[in-house]
Amino acid sequence: MARDDRVVLIGEDVAGSGGVFKTTVGLLDQFGPKRVIDTPISEQAILGAVMGAAMTGLRPVAEIMFSDFFAVCWDLVVNQMAKTRYMTNGQVALPLVVKSGNGGGLRFGAQHSQAIENWAMAVPGLKVVTPSTPEDVIGLMAAAVRDDDPVLFFEAKGLYPTKGEVPAGEIVDTLGTAKVRRAGTDATVLALGLMVPRAMQAADHLAGQGISVEVIDVRSLVPLDTATILGSVAKTGRLFTVEENPRLLGWGAEIVSIVAEESFWDLDAPIERITTPHIPLPSADSLEDLVLPSADSIAQTVEKALQA
Amino acid sequence: MSAATIQRRRHVHSPRMRKLARDAGVDLDAVRGSGPSGRVVREDILRAASTQDAAAGPDHVAPPAAVAAGAFGVVVGEVDVTHLRALASRAGLIAVIAAETMRALRRQGAATTDVGESLDVDGILVEHAADLTVPAMLRRIAEGGRATSSPDDAPRVAIKSRAGDGLLLHLHPLDADRLLTVGVGAVVERPVVACLPDREHVIAVAALANVSVTYDPARISAAVAETVLGQVIAGVREPAAARGLAD
Description:
The complex is a heterodimer of chains A (308) and B (247).
Chain A (H helix, E strand, L loop, with lengths): L6 E5 L15 H5 L4 E3 L4 H13 L3 E8 L7 H14 L9 E6 L14 H5 L5 E3 L4 H13 L4 E6 L22 E4 L4 E5 L3 H14 L4 E5 L2 E3 L3 H11 L2 E8 L4 H12 L9 E5 L8 H7 L3 H13 L1
Parallel strand pairs in A: 1-2, 1-3, 3-4, 4-6, 5-6, 8-9, 8-11, 11-12
Antiparallel strand pairs in A: 5-10, 7-9
Chain B lengths: L2 H6 L6 H10 L17 H15 L16 E8 L1 H4 L4 H18 L11 E3 L2 E3 L7 H10 L13 E4 L19 E16 L5 E15 L6 H16 L10
Parallel strand pairs in B: 2-4, 4-5
Antiparallel strand pairs in B: 1-6, 2-3, 5-6
Helix pairs in contact in B: 2-3, 5-6, 5-7
């Protein structure tokens, strides 16, 4: 926002309160009420407004407080934002970003804990990213704002309290790139968002069992970094995905399909997806902890597979 | 498929192992698995492949094919001379290849009895070539001198190494009475894919040269020619190949 006057931010409680999850603290003071705007509770109005803003020369960022609420304004995302460039034959671009609090782990219950990045992956015309570290939040947001297409930026709510090293200076990442968080040789584990630190903990535990796991933070679902993923599978011969989405059609299902098609002859064993069961998420903490993939469940699944 | 069949076939070979076995020419049904629950793993296949090669042996030779007069066969390969670059001049490289050729021919035994003792290296006669060390071969080549003598005792085997700029390979038809000619192309530096011990692949720079073996198919079979080429390439790669050249 400091670099480019055209970048504006709107959403529920993003200005005066600095965001319900405190992700936009200080922006109102720094950039003023014309560029940081609190909206009524109307997701359709929020997205309609940023669409109009993007069509008329701004580079807006909208916040949808809980990604579950995308269901309320999905028509604007899918039928308007995702289709505009195509249906105007490139005459109208929508350089906008919609950020949202995504996923569970905070006991918010079934309607406030869903991870819906897989819904977004299924719609042609959108870009979809999920950072898992503070550095990536900055770098991928910078890349998303600079991108001329609609980018859905999913922030894992469960990771909001995370602290991490952030290099000084400007950080601009690249959409469409995955990161190998931990190199390994015995198995490839793909993870996204909240599942990344859990996969890393599982990898630490497995290393103690003599199993060397390569953990890849997928980061970007659209565009997807197939080169990094397929390269890793070629090296290890085994693939696991760790997905917060409910079982059917999580983001990992698509990647597994791609691997089966393009790297069949590299596979040493069946691919395994580690996911939440196909149920609404519980509010009770013990139940939520049981259903979301955990470091333990990830480690157990990988260990069992490699010993079979 | 019944549950019983699925259970029985629980440990079928994985796609990766099937591909590895196919590429190595190994029959998977004959391989005993040493992995968990009796799975066939990479080491099992590699062991089976090397056992098969050893079983074949130097005397296992396919008879030469019937061919038209004047026809010749060619096999071409690529030799990695990166480790020789610092040590050897082109003459040194040729000496190494000449020595490896004579060694490879000697190992073919019955298939190459009329190879003889001498070698023609770019027109220079090298006698008792099979007994020379690489430095001795190099000295003999450097001496130059006596061109090949009368046709009666002309060497059956030749090395031809003249390769101008940009010429990767020159396939030489066989001179009269020649059994086999090894052609060595120009050395070119190229990016290659190298595999590190932790199985990570990296790009490295290698010095490579094309090597051809032109042979008389009426007297030497394709299998022997291929084996000779393979052994020359493998021999040149050995660090010991450069022994003596650094002096």
